[in-house]
Amino acid sequence: MSVQVNVHGTDDLAGLSSHLVQINKTASSSVCKFDGMLVFSQPLSLHEDDEKYAVAHLQQIAYEMTIDRINSPYRCGVAVIKDGKRYGVTLATYGDNSSKEMVESIAQSLTSTNNTGFLLGPYSSGLTK
Predict the structure, then answer these.
(1) Beta pairing, strands 36-44 & 85-95
(2) Which are the contacts of 25, defined by CB distance < 8 A and separation ≥ 6?
(3) What is the pLDDT of residue 112?
(4) Spatial contact of 69 and 119, defined as CB atoms under 8 Å apart
(5) If we measure between CA atoms, which residue out of 73, 69, 89 comes closest to residue 32?
(6) Which of 8, 17, 36, 58 is most buried (most C-beta within 10 Å)?
(7) Residues 22, 72: contact at Cβ < 8 Å?
(8) pLDDT digits over 17-52, tens only?
(9) Three-class DSSP category at 88
(10) Quick one: pLDDT at residue 99?
(11) Sign of the C-alpha dihedral, residues 97, 99, 100, 104?
(12) Which of the four pLDDT bands, split at 50, 70 and 90, describes residue 77?
């Protein structure tokens, strides 16, 4: 399986997936100290020639803006009151080629390992079963 993965919001890439082909990293703020990272993963149409790329690309930009805001010195991640810890947020997007089969394969791979904390659905409901 050939998958393009973009990781946004962290320098810590350990344990994401053995399917990584291309990784784009954006470092979180050096002002904030995180006790760990919350990993959100999502199949997404990442290539310009993918059928659903135009809107999926806008969705990816919106996620990246949100993560930048959450990890910024203004917020310094997500505070979990119960354990008194603060977590940064990471987004890993997996190229799905606008294909139902690829979305299913990515979802199965991510849910069968402990590489992701949260699995987000693809942009289009047409890519789900």
Answers:
(1) parallel
(2) 7, 8, 10, 11, 13
(3) 83
(4) no
(5) 73
(6) 8
(7) no
(8) 333 333 333 444 468 999 999 999 889 888 899 888
(9) strand
(10) 86
(11) negative
(12) very high
Mean pLDDT value across residues 48-63: 90
Q: Which helix (H) or strand (E) covers residue 20, if one does?
A: none
Give the helix/strand (H/E) hosting 92.
Answer: strand 85-95
Percent of the chain predicted with pLDDT > 90:
30
Which two three-digit tokens encode residue 63?
């996620």
Which pair of structure tokens corresponds to residue 27?
A: 């470092």
The C-alpha atoms of residue 64 and residue 83 are separated, in whole angstroms, by 27
- 13: part of which helix (H) or strand (E)? none
Q: How many C-beta atoms lie closer than 10 Å to residue 83's C-beta? A: 9
Rounded distance between C-alpha atoms, residue 108 and residue 102, angstroms: 10
Phi, psi of 89 (to 5 degrees): -115, 140
Q: What is the pTM of this model?
A: 0.69
**Rounded Cα gap, residues 74 and 102, in angstroms:** 37
Instruction: Give the mean pLDDT of 2-22.
Output: 41
